[in-house]
């Protein structure tokens, strides 16, 4: 069945979510269907142990076909578990978007998505830099934006807004990281 | 030599002649990091023509320049780079802090931004504005020329020993 034949995206999403539920029912914590706003998309909260399997399924399944990782980021919710890692996906063939979230507590690792989308590499480095969430299996999990000597993770809610850290010298270049 | 062939002469101090030469041949090093850099480019181009003030020889090498125009936001990761470039410019050197970001951090009072480049390097002229108009930068260059003629810049004061060395300042 061509998913584009469906009249509205809401119907298309419903069919897709049924398909996902059959395969991942035990691993899905919660599904939020889009509200009234035109920019809303369905949000799937998934357990950490099934995250990469779900992402791989969303990418490789013929009908779902979410080949494109539009964005990978995180949020600090200040509840337990503390963080949500967010994957925004887009399908070029169906023109639909979907959002996958994974709740992680402080110090807990998430499995890397670089094997599925190589472009997740820098996005995961940014999440590590800004939130301090480690990605297991990442090829080179270094800070992306801040200085390597920086202490703390600035986008955490408990990081002080004016927590300046200045260095007298530029950070040293590790030649093994150069291509 | 006068027009009728009579020998005329002029007495002056060597320092005054040297400073006259310096102030009319400022070689800028453009350190444009944001929108102020665009205004600096406009100032250097033909409409505003900074060449009228002898400051058109833009050099991207610190060894060949003597006026650093810091035009734009200097974040914490950029600060050591600016310090290194300042150290590489040979004396006497002048610094123009162009715009609110370079002068005080501007609207970016956050963890990642230096609160004014004078926390890293000594500054001679500050240009207010977000971004300043080209007239603002021209005014700063003219003000700097006046300061050089009077010997009131930080580099000249350092030379005379009337202020501390840069290494102790930073």
CATH superfamily of chain A: NADH:ubiquinone oxidoreductase Nqo5 subunit
Please state the overall shape of chain A, judged from the principal axes of the Cα atoms: globular
| Uncertain ranges of chain A | none
**Separate helix tally of chain A:** 3
If helices are DSSP runs of H or I spanning 4 or more residues, what is the number of helices of chain B? 7
Low-confidence stretches of chain B: none
Shape of chain B: globular
Write down the CATH topology of chain B. Rossmann fold
Q: On the 0-100 scale, what is the average pLDDT of chain B?
A: 88
CATH class of chain B: Alpha Beta
- Report the sheet-strand fraction of chain A: 15-25%
CATH class of chain A: Alpha Beta
* Multimerization status: heterodimer
Radius of gyration of chain A: 18 Å
What value does the average pLDDT of chain A take?
Answer: 87
Instruction: Give the tally of β-strands of chain A.
Output: 7
Counted up, domains of chain B total 1
Strand order of the largest sheet of chain B: 1-2-3-4
Q: Sheet with the most strands of chain A?
A: 5 strands, mixed
Helix content percent band of chain B: 25-40%
Which class do the helix and strand fractions of chain B yield? Answer: alpha/beta
Quick description:
Chain A is of the alpha/beta class. Chain A has helices at residues 9-24, 51-60, 120-131, and strands at residues 28-32, 43-46, 68-76, 83-90, 97-104, 110-111, 135-136.
Write a structural description.
The complex is a heterodimer of chains A (179) and B (170). Chain A is α/β, with parallel strands linked by helices. Chain A has a single domain, classed as NADH:ubiquinone oxidoreductase Nqo5 subunit (Beta Polymerase, domain 2, 2-Layer Sandwich), CATH 3.30.460.80. Helix content of chain A is 21%, strand content 21%. Chain A contains three helices and seven strands. Chain A has helices at 9-24, 51-60, 120-131, and strands at residues 28-32, 43-46, 68-76, 83-90, 97-104, 110-111, 135-136. The model of chain A has no long low-confidence stretch (mean pLDDT 87). Chain B has 170 residues and is α/β, with parallel strands linked by helices. Chain B has a single domain, classed as Rossmann fold (3-Layer(aba) Sandwich). Chain B is built from seven helices and four strands; from the N terminus they run αβαβαβαβααα. Chain B has a four-stranded parallel sheet with strand order 1-2-3-4. In chain B, strand 2 (67-71), helix 3 and strand 3 form a beta-alpha-beta unit. Chain B is globular. The chains are: A alpha/beta (179), B alpha/beta (170). Chain A binds chain B through residues 145-147, 154, 159-171, and chain B through 76-77, 79-81, 83-84, 109-112, 114-115, 119.
């Amino acid at each position: 069945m061509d998913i584009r034949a469906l009249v509205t995206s809401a119907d298309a999403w419903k069919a897709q979510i049924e398909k996902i539920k059959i395969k991942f029912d035990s691993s899905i914590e919660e599904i939020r269907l889009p509200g009234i706003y035109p920019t809303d998309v369905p949000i799937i909260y998934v357990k950490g142990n099934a995250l990469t399997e779900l992402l791989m399924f969303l990418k490789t399944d013929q009908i779902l076909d979410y080949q494109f990782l539009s964005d990978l980021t995180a949020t600090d919710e200040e509840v337990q578990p503390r963080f949500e890692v967010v994957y925004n996906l887009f399908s070029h063939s169906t023109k639909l978007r979907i959002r996958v979230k994974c709740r992680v507590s402080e110090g807990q690792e998430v499995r890397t998505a670089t094997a599925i989308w190589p472009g997740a590499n820098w996005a995961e480095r940014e999440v590590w830099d800004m939130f301090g969430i480690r990605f297991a299996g990442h090829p080179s999990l270094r800070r992306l934006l801040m200085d390597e000597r920086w202490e703390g993770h600035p986008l955490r809610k408990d990081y002080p807004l004016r927590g300046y850290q200045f260095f007298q010298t530029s950070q040293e270049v590790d030649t093994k990281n150069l291509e | 030599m006068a027009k009728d062939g009579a020998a005329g002469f002029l007495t002056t101090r060597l320092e005054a002649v040297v400073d006259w030469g310096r102030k009319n041949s400022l070689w800028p090093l453009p350190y444009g990091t944001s929108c102020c850099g665009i205004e600096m480019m406009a100032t250097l181009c033909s409409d505003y023509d900074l060449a009228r003030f002898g400051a058109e020889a833009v050099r991207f090498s610190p060894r060949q320049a003597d006026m650093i125009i810091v035009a734009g936001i200097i974040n914490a990761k950029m600060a050591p780079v600016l310090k290194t470039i300042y150290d590489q410019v040979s004396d006497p050197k002048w610094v123009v802090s162009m715009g609110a970001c370079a002068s005080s951090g501007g609207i970016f009072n956050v963890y990642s931004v230096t609160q004014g480049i004078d926390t890293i390097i000594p500054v001679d002229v500050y240009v207010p504005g977000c971004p300043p108009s080209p007239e603002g930068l021209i005014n700063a260059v003219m003000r700097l020329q006046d300061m050089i003629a009077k010997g009131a810049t930080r580099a000249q004061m350092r030379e005379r020993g009337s202020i501390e060395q840069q290494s102790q300042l930073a």
